[in-house]
Q: What sequence folds into this?
C-alpha cells in the first residue's frame, strides 16, 4: 500500500472504494493530528472509544452518524 494524499488539516479523506457513511463495512479515512498552527481534525482521536458516535459531513451536505465498532492504536 502506498501513502495516500491527505486533505487540508481540517478535513478528512474517505477511501473512495470503501463503504459509504452509514453502511456496513470497514472504512479507511486519512487526516492530520496537528498542523503548523496547532490541533487538526484528528487531534482528539486518542480519546475515541468503542461505540462512540462519529459525525460525517459529506461534500454534498448530507450528514451521517456512524459508530466506531473497534478502536486500534499502532
A:
Amino acid at each position: 500500500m502506498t501513502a495516500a494524499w491527505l486533505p487540508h488539516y481540517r478535513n478528512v479523506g474517505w477511501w473512495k472504494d470503501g463503504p459509504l457513511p452509514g453502511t456496513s463495512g470497514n472504512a479507511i479515512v486519512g487526516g492530520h493530528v496537528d498542523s503548523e498552527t496547532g490541533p487538526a481534525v484528528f487531534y482528539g482521536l486518542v480519546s475515541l472509544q468503542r461505540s462512540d458516535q462519529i459525525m460525517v459531513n459529506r461534500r454534498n451536505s448530507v450528514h451521517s452518524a456512524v459508530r466506531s465498532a473497534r478502536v486500534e492504536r499502532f
